[in-house]
Amino acid sequence: MIHFPSITIVFLLCVTFSYATKIVDVEIICKEAEDPSFCSTFLKSRPPGISGDLVSLDKYSIEYVHANITYTVDLIKKLNAQSRDINEEDYYRRCLTHFDWVVYYIVEIEEKTKRGDYTDVHEKADFITIDINNCIYGDSPSEPVFHDTSSLPKYLDVIKKIANIISNKNGKPSVLVWGSCEHSSVVDRNISLHHASREGNQCADYFAKLGASSDAHFIVHQSPPADLLPLLRADAIGTYFVRS
Could you say which residues form the signal peptide (predicted)? Predict the structure, then answer.
Protein backbone atom coordinates (compact mmCIF):
# COMPACT_ATOMS: atom_id res chain seq x y z
CA MET A 1 0.00 0.00 0.00
CA ILE A 2 1.24 3.49 -0.85
CA HIS A 3 0.77 5.60 2.22
CA PHE A 4 0.00 9.03 0.83
CA PRO A 5 -2.41 10.83 3.14
CA SER A 6 -5.50 12.07 1.33
CA ILE A 7 -5.97 15.80 1.39
CA THR A 8 -8.94 16.11 -0.92
CA ILE A 9 -11.52 14.66 1.43
CA VAL A 10 -12.48 18.25 2.20
CA PHE A 11 -12.86 19.25 -1.41
CA LEU A 12 -16.53 18.44 -1.75
CA LEU A 13 -17.75 20.04 1.45
CA CYS A 14 -19.35 22.80 -0.58
CA VAL A 15 -19.59 21.38 -4.07
CA THR A 16 -22.26 22.06 -6.63
CA PHE A 17 -23.06 19.55 -9.33
CA SER A 18 -22.32 21.61 -12.41
CA TYR A 19 -18.91 22.68 -11.12
CA ALA A 20 -18.01 19.34 -9.58
CA THR A 21 -18.21 17.44 -12.86
CA LYS A 22 -15.71 19.70 -14.65
CA ILE A 23 -12.04 18.77 -15.02
CA VAL A 24 -10.12 20.96 -12.61
CA ASP A 25 -6.61 22.37 -12.41
CA VAL A 26 -4.85 20.52 -9.60
CA GLU A 27 -2.53 23.44 -8.94
CA ILE A 28 -5.47 25.77 -8.33
CA ILE A 29 -7.14 23.24 -6.06
CA CYS A 30 -3.98 22.70 -4.06
CA LYS A 31 -2.83 26.29 -3.60
CA GLU A 32 -4.92 26.66 -0.41
CA ALA A 33 -4.00 23.22 0.94
CA GLU A 34 -1.87 22.90 4.06
CA ASP A 35 0.88 21.31 1.96
CA PRO A 36 0.35 22.44 -1.67
CA SER A 37 3.32 20.49 -2.99
CA PHE A 38 2.14 17.24 -1.46
CA CYS A 39 -1.43 17.90 -2.53
CA SER A 40 -0.33 18.36 -6.12
CA THR A 41 1.88 15.27 -6.08
CA PHE A 42 -0.85 13.14 -4.54
CA LEU A 43 -3.57 14.13 -6.98
CA LYS A 44 -1.37 13.96 -10.05
CA SER A 45 -0.19 10.46 -9.10
CA ARG A 46 -3.72 9.04 -8.90
CA PRO A 47 -4.22 5.73 -10.76
CA PRO A 48 -5.05 5.79 -14.47
CA GLY A 49 -8.76 5.83 -15.13
CA ILE A 50 -9.67 8.20 -12.31
CA SER A 51 -10.96 11.41 -13.83
CA GLY A 52 -9.73 14.85 -12.85
CA ASP A 53 -13.14 16.24 -11.87
CA LEU A 54 -13.86 17.07 -8.24
CA VAL A 55 -16.35 14.26 -7.69
CA SER A 56 -13.87 11.64 -8.89
CA LEU A 57 -10.98 13.13 -6.92
CA ASP A 58 -13.10 13.28 -3.80
CA LYS A 59 -14.30 9.69 -4.14
CA TYR A 60 -10.76 8.46 -4.72
CA SER A 61 -9.40 10.40 -1.75
CA ILE A 62 -12.06 9.29 0.71
CA GLU A 63 -11.68 5.65 -0.28
CA TYR A 64 -7.92 5.97 0.03
CA VAL A 65 -8.20 7.48 3.52
CA HIS A 66 -10.57 4.74 4.60
CA ALA A 67 -8.16 2.09 3.35
CA ASN A 68 -5.29 3.65 5.29
CA ILE A 69 -7.33 3.74 8.49
CA THR A 70 -8.21 0.08 7.99
CA TYR A 71 -4.54 -0.72 7.49
CA THR A 72 -3.67 1.16 10.69
CA VAL A 73 -6.22 -0.84 12.69
CA ASP A 74 -4.69 -4.07 11.42
CA LEU A 75 -1.23 -2.77 12.33
CA ILE A 76 -2.33 -1.96 15.88
CA LYS A 77 -3.80 -5.45 16.28
CA LYS A 78 -0.55 -6.99 15.07
CA LEU A 79 1.56 -4.85 17.39
CA ASN A 80 -0.74 -5.64 20.31
CA ALA A 81 -0.27 -9.37 19.70
CA GLN A 82 3.49 -8.83 19.83
CA SER A 83 3.44 -6.78 23.04
CA ARG A 84 6.41 -7.43 25.31
CA ASP A 85 5.12 -5.93 28.56
CA ILE A 86 1.97 -4.62 30.22
CA ASN A 87 2.66 -0.96 29.35
CA GLU A 88 2.99 -1.74 25.67
CA GLU A 89 -0.10 -3.93 25.75
CA ASP A 90 -2.14 -1.24 27.50
CA TYR A 91 -1.03 1.32 24.91
CA TYR A 92 -2.09 -0.74 21.91
CA ARG A 93 -5.35 -1.78 23.55
CA ARG A 94 -6.11 1.86 24.23
CA CYS A 95 -5.40 2.71 20.60
CA LEU A 96 -7.67 -0.08 19.41
CA THR A 97 -10.47 1.27 21.57
CA HIS A 98 -10.08 4.76 20.16
CA PHE A 99 -9.75 3.49 16.61
CA ASP A 100 -13.16 1.88 16.91
CA TRP A 101 -14.39 5.48 16.97
CA VAL A 102 -11.98 6.64 14.27
CA VAL A 103 -13.40 3.97 11.95
CA TYR A 104 -16.93 4.99 12.88
CA TYR A 105 -16.28 8.65 12.09
CA ILE A 106 -14.54 8.06 8.77
CA VAL A 107 -17.37 5.74 7.68
CA GLU A 108 -19.85 8.46 8.63
CA ILE A 109 -17.90 11.03 6.63
CA GLU A 110 -17.71 8.71 3.64
CA GLU A 111 -21.39 7.84 3.69
CA LYS A 112 -22.51 11.42 4.22
CA THR A 113 -20.39 12.86 1.42
CA LYS A 114 -21.60 10.17 -0.96
CA ARG A 115 -25.12 11.45 -0.29
CA GLY A 116 -24.06 15.06 -0.63
CA ASP A 117 -24.69 15.64 3.07
CA TYR A 118 -21.90 17.58 4.80
CA THR A 119 -23.51 18.29 8.15
CA ASP A 120 -21.26 17.47 11.12
CA VAL A 121 -18.31 16.59 8.87
CA HIS A 122 -16.08 19.11 10.68
CA GLU A 123 -17.18 17.78 14.05
CA LYS A 124 -16.46 14.18 13.09
CA ALA A 125 -13.04 15.15 11.78
CA ASP A 126 -12.31 16.86 15.09
CA PHE A 127 -13.38 13.72 16.94
CA ILE A 128 -10.93 11.69 14.85
CA THR A 129 -8.12 13.99 15.99
CA ILE A 130 -9.25 13.75 19.61
CA ASP A 131 -9.35 9.95 19.54
CA ILE A 132 -5.91 9.71 17.96
CA ASN A 133 -4.49 12.09 20.54
CA ASN A 134 -6.04 9.97 23.28
CA CYS A 135 -4.46 6.92 21.68
CA ILE A 136 -1.05 8.59 21.75
CA TYR A 137 -1.16 10.50 25.03
CA GLY A 138 -3.75 8.63 27.07
CA ASP A 139 -7.21 9.53 28.26
CA SER A 140 -6.02 11.78 31.07
CA PRO A 141 -3.03 14.10 31.63
CA SER A 142 -1.83 11.87 34.47
CA GLU A 143 -1.21 8.89 32.19
CA PRO A 144 2.43 8.40 31.16
CA VAL A 145 3.09 8.71 27.43
CA PHE A 146 4.24 5.46 25.87
CA HIS A 147 7.33 5.82 23.68
CA ASP A 148 6.33 3.86 20.59
CA THR A 149 9.26 2.91 18.36
CA SER A 150 7.10 1.04 15.85
CA SER A 151 5.81 2.42 12.55
CA LEU A 152 2.44 3.24 14.13
CA PRO A 153 3.20 6.91 15.00
CA LYS A 154 3.82 7.62 11.32
CA TYR A 155 0.35 6.39 10.39
CA LEU A 156 -1.27 8.20 13.30
CA ASP A 157 0.35 11.42 12.14
CA VAL A 158 -0.96 10.92 8.59
CA ILE A 159 -4.52 10.43 9.79
CA LYS A 160 -4.30 13.43 12.12
CA LYS A 161 -3.16 15.59 9.21
CA ILE A 162 -6.15 14.44 7.20
CA ALA A 163 -8.50 15.24 10.07
CA ASN A 164 -6.93 18.66 10.54
CA ILE A 165 -7.45 19.45 6.86
CA ILE A 166 -11.08 18.37 7.07
CA SER A 167 -11.76 20.48 10.13
CA ASN A 168 -9.86 23.51 8.81
CA LYS A 169 -8.10 24.08 12.09
CA ASN A 170 -5.56 26.36 10.45
CA GLY A 171 -8.27 28.92 9.77
CA LYS A 172 -8.02 28.78 5.98
CA PRO A 173 -11.18 28.23 3.97
CA SER A 174 -11.50 24.77 2.54
CA VAL A 175 -10.10 24.39 -0.94
CA LEU A 176 -13.47 23.96 -2.53
CA VAL A 177 -14.87 27.03 -0.84
CA TRP A 178 -12.47 28.93 -3.05
CA GLY A 179 -13.40 26.74 -5.99
CA SER A 180 -17.06 25.86 -6.01
CA CYS A 181 -18.51 28.55 -3.77
CA GLU A 182 -16.52 31.31 -5.38
CA HIS A 183 -17.52 30.01 -8.78
CA SER A 184 -21.18 29.82 -7.80
CA SER A 185 -21.75 32.98 -5.83
CA VAL A 186 -19.35 35.73 -6.82
CA VAL A 187 -20.71 35.82 -10.34
CA ASP A 188 -24.13 36.80 -8.99
CA ARG A 189 -23.99 39.81 -6.67
CA ASN A 190 -27.75 39.70 -6.07
CA ILE A 191 -27.24 37.21 -3.27
CA SER A 192 -28.07 38.67 0.12
CA LEU A 193 -25.48 37.27 2.50
CA HIS A 194 -26.35 36.97 6.16
CA HIS A 195 -24.92 33.73 7.45
CA ALA A 196 -21.36 33.60 8.75
CA SER A 197 -21.29 30.85 11.36
CA ARG A 198 -19.37 27.63 10.76
CA GLU A 199 -21.52 24.68 9.77
CA GLY A 200 -21.46 21.47 7.77
CA ASN A 201 -22.14 23.46 4.61
CA GLN A 202 -18.93 25.45 4.51
CA CYS A 203 -20.18 28.00 2.05
CA ALA A 204 -21.05 30.07 5.12
CA ASP A 205 -17.36 30.64 5.75
CA TYR A 206 -16.83 31.88 2.24
CA PHE A 207 -19.96 34.03 2.35
CA ALA A 208 -18.62 35.65 5.50
CA LYS A 209 -15.62 36.85 3.53
CA LEU A 210 -18.01 38.67 1.21
CA GLY A 211 -19.44 40.63 4.12
CA ALA A 212 -22.04 38.35 5.67
CA SER A 213 -23.22 39.29 9.13
CA SER A 214 -22.52 36.87 11.97
CA ASP A 215 -25.64 37.87 13.90
CA ALA A 216 -28.08 36.25 11.47
CA HIS A 217 -28.55 32.62 10.61
CA PHE A 218 -29.11 32.26 6.90
CA ILE A 219 -28.40 33.51 3.43
CA VAL A 220 -31.30 34.63 1.31
CA HIS A 221 -31.63 34.46 -2.44
CA GLN A 222 -34.96 34.85 -4.21
CA SER A 223 -33.71 33.45 -7.52
CA PRO A 224 -30.34 31.72 -7.10
CA PRO A 225 -28.30 30.53 -10.07
CA ALA A 226 -28.90 26.88 -10.89
CA ASP A 227 -25.49 25.71 -9.74
CA LEU A 228 -26.05 27.25 -6.29
CA LEU A 229 -29.30 25.38 -5.70
CA PRO A 230 -27.69 22.20 -4.31
CA LEU A 231 -26.35 24.32 -1.45
CA LEU A 232 -29.73 25.77 -0.54
CA ARG A 233 -33.18 24.81 0.60
CA ALA A 234 -36.38 26.74 -0.08
CA ASP A 235 -39.02 27.76 2.44
CA ALA A 236 -42.74 27.82 1.76
CA ILE A 237 -42.64 31.15 -0.07
CA GLY A 238 -39.67 30.31 -2.24
CA THR A 239 -36.90 32.08 -0.35
CA TYR A 240 -33.69 30.07 -0.35
CA PHE A 241 -31.56 29.54 2.73
CA VAL A 242 -28.27 27.80 3.42
CA ARG A 243 -29.03 24.21 4.27
CA SER A 244 -28.80 23.49 7.97
Answer: 1-20
